[in-house]
Write a structure and sequence with these properties.
376 residues, alpha/beta, FAD/NAD(P)-binding domain, D-Amino Acid Oxidase, Chain A, domain 2, 3 domains, eight-stranded mixed beta sheet, 10 helices, 28% helix, globular, binds flavin-adenine dinucleotide
């Protein structure tokens, strides 16, 4: 990373070069804006490096559905712009229904998806077993969402940042500590005149903007050795949403992703408010046991690595995208919880529409930070 002269002025300073910041930088640079990215660490080294890279349409709320559907469509439209190392693979998702109640819910999900142009097909138990022969028997069926995909997130963030740089964006190794009178303040002491500052500093945003309603949900992931076991789609239990957004302080749910290397990436866990990054063996054991219940073959495969990451969450599980009423010029792009890789491209389009005063590509209101009340 080069260090630019801080005497220059910019249209926008982006704080953070994770998936969200890199996407915002690329979108702004594509519009011809003068962009400075400030990143204290590695590009894509935060939550982005810990994530699973599942690009998934989710429907826990109408706003989440709109943002994930729009963003997944953008990934698909733009897939050829990314180098091979981003490993874009249209794995599809199969939402597995454990019993008849879940089957009813899955079919309803399928109706909603199809009504909005998202391909979704109900798989009865024999068809599910044919699609995923290594899945345990006895499930009530599954909903195949064929357009969902998987990527390798840190490389995707790097690729977006490189493309922003190709269009003139500069990157500096430093940290943003505030914005005052249209100047962005850097930790090393510099002040950068800028019309706007996009806060895409992920989990760290809660340190320098402590009044924001941001929390943390720690997650664990495990990757297996290369295996002959067959997992063909991203497999997720239908109860995943309940685990992700329920009231429990600790939960696990089955979520498995086939990698191009014949490894299986296994998730997922959620621990609300836990900020330590060490592996919590009891919850990891619960996560693995859950995995084995769905894919019994996992019991015979070595795990090669486990790690944790912190998802930044908000009280309504929707990101904060929009101007911060307390700080003129500050635009928030944070709090994406477990969907920040998926929704990075949609977030970037929304951020650019705010900066340029254009009509947003989807409804922006549900994501406005002001939904949590106006400043005192
Ligand atoms: C276990 C796990 C699994 C997940 N799986 C998925 C998935 O399958 N699909 C999906 O869509 N999402 C998934 N996510 C969520 C996703 O990874 C995050 O939502 C996303 O990476 C957030 O990106 P970000 O750019 O906001 O944050 P980060 O990637 O954390 O980037 C923030 C950056 O800001 C920098 N920074 C910090 N402080 C400052 C400062 N003061 N100034 C400037 N820069 C600063 C940091 O160094 C960091 O590089 C998962 C997350 C976890 C933890």
């Amino acid at each position: 990373m080069s260090r630019p002269g801080v005497g220059r002025s910019y249209d926008v300073v982006i704080a953070g070069a994770g998936m969200v910041g890199a996407a915002c930088a690329e979108a702004a640079a594509r519009e011809g804006l003068r962009v400075l990215v400030v990143e204290p660490d590695l590009c894509g080294g935060g939550a982005t490096a810990a994530g699973m890279g599942h690009l998934v349409v989710m429907d826990d709320s109408p706003a989440q559905f709109e943002l994930t559907r729009y963003s997944c469509a953008r990934w698909k439209e733009r897939r050829d712009e990314f180098p091979e190392q981003v490993e874009f693979r249209e794995t599809g998702t199969i939402w597995i229904a454990a019993d008849e109640d879940e089957a009813v819910a899955a079919r309803k999900k399928g109706d909603l998806f199809r009504a909005h142009g998202v391909a979704a097909e109900w798989l009865d138990p024999p068809t599910l077993a044919e699609c995923e022969p290594d899945l345990a028997p006895g499930f009530a069926g599954g909903l195949l969402v064929a357009g969902d995909a998987a990527i390798y997130p840190p490389r995707a963030a790097q690729s977006l940042l490189e493309r922003a740089q190709d269009r003139g964006a500069r990157v500096v190794r430093d940290a943003v500590v505030g914005m005052k009178d249209r100047e962005v303040l850097l930790r090393a002491g510099g002040r950068v005149p800028a019309a706007a500052c996009v806060v895409a500093s992920g989990e760290a945003a809660r340190h320098w903007l402590p009044e924001l309603p941001l929390g943390v949900k720690k997650g664990h992931l495990l990757i297996t050795d290369r295996t002959a076991h067959r997992v063909r789609h991203q497999l997720v239990e239908l109860g995943y949403s309940r685990s992700a957004h329920g009231d429990e302080l600790e939960s696990v749910a089955f979520n498995a992703q086939p990698r191009g290397t014949r490894q299986i990436l296994l998730g997922s866990s959620r621990q609300v408010g836990v900020t330590t990054r060490d592996v919590d063996w009891p919850i990891l054991r619960r996560m693995v046991r859950r995995g084995i219940r769905f894919l019994p073959g996992l019991a015979t495969i070595m795990a090669t690595r486990v790690w944790t990451g912190l998802r930044q969450s908000t009280p309504d599980s929707l990101p904060l995208i929009g101007e911060d009423a307390r700080r003129p010029g500050v635009i928030l792009a944070t709090g994406h919880e477990g969907l920040g890789v998926t929704t990075s491209l949609g977030t970037a389009d929304l951020v650019v529409s705010i900066m340029l005063g254009r009509a947003p590509p989807i409804r922006a209101e549900p994501f406005r930070p002001s939904r949590f009340g106006s400043p005192p």
